[in-house]
Amino acid sequence: MKGIILAGGSGTRLHPITLAVSKQLLPVGDKPMIYYPLAVLMLTGIKDILIITTPADLPQYRDLLGDGSHLGLRITYAEQDRPRGIAEALVIGADHIGSDSVALALGDNIFHGNQFSDTLAENAADIHGCVLFGYSVQDPERYGVGVTDENGRLLSIEEKPTHPRSNRAITGLYFYDNDVVDIAKNTQPSARGELEITDVNRVYVERGRARLVELGRGFAWLDTGTPESLLQAGQYVRTLEERQGVRIACIEEIALRMGFIDADSCYRLGERLSNSGYGKYVMAIAAEFAQNPATTAEGAEEIRTASR
Question: Where is the Nucleotidyl transferase domain positioned along the sequence (predicted)?
């Protein structure tokens, strides 16, 4: 499976903050926002990732993440000169996807919950259709919402309905089989000239090949698109990190626990950031791992349950 992170757009709801910096580079806790969707893809086991952003912002992402080799990843970049809908990411990323399945993550969505990586791995395996992730909200009229049968098969998707038939919002994480490339290419733009991801998903619904995985009680899904939600996300992350003593979306630790890099490489990554608490945490994790590699399985489970 290949991965795509859509980190484009102009972030107008966060103006004036985003007049000079990409939204997905803003801090959430002590790390850039884009670390969170990147962590989700890494926890799914994906190592080949395309980041789509604006021409002006692309150099900053390259400075931040490089080619990904320090994390055991392959990160490449593509430009979206202006927002033309989420589904355009699948057209831009067609060559990247090739003949594989794909996970598309929005750069401003944060996921955190118990056993999430198990859920990711289970649903990423052997995809035949699309897998969407639903989250119960109090204001479903603000979102695309899904209606399912008792087995989780999607029967319909309503975009910002006046009278919602469900309170399960569809989040910014999408798993697709390879058919999605042709579906996206053949999707007609909306009246606004955008390729709507809901239109892509509805094709799968009509074919009876769409499932909705519900992210239940004890799970958090945060959309950081407004000043209020950005502040709330930062407070949520810091509170959990201070209480649990682990970092959420620490990509160096995830790379180590997932076996993408070894402890020495991880320690060196921490050394580069050693003046910060984040860097000291990475160094401590790497040192502990090197001293007791028998804890690999235990540490990986800790990542899966506490570090999204």
Answer: 2-236
76 in helix, strand or coil? Answer: strand
Residue 9: the pLDDT is: 84
Burial of 303 (0-12, 13-18, 19+ CB in 10 A): buried
Long-range contacts of 90-95 (CB under 8 A, 24+ apart): 90/4, 90/176, 90/180, 90/181, 90/184, 90/200, 91/181, 91/184, 91/185, 91/195, 92/52, 93/2, 93/4, 93/50, 93/52, 94/181, 94/184, 94/185
Rg (CA), the chain: 19
**Low-confidence winner among 30-34, 37-41, 241-245 (lowest mean pLDDT):** 241-245
Q: Which of 96, 226, 204, 81 is nearest to 153 (CA)?
A: 204
Q: Is the pLDDT of residue 19 over 90?
A: no
The DSSP 8-state label assigned to residue 232 in this structure reads H
Whole-angstrom CA distances from 14 to 64, 106, 243 are 21, 16, 29
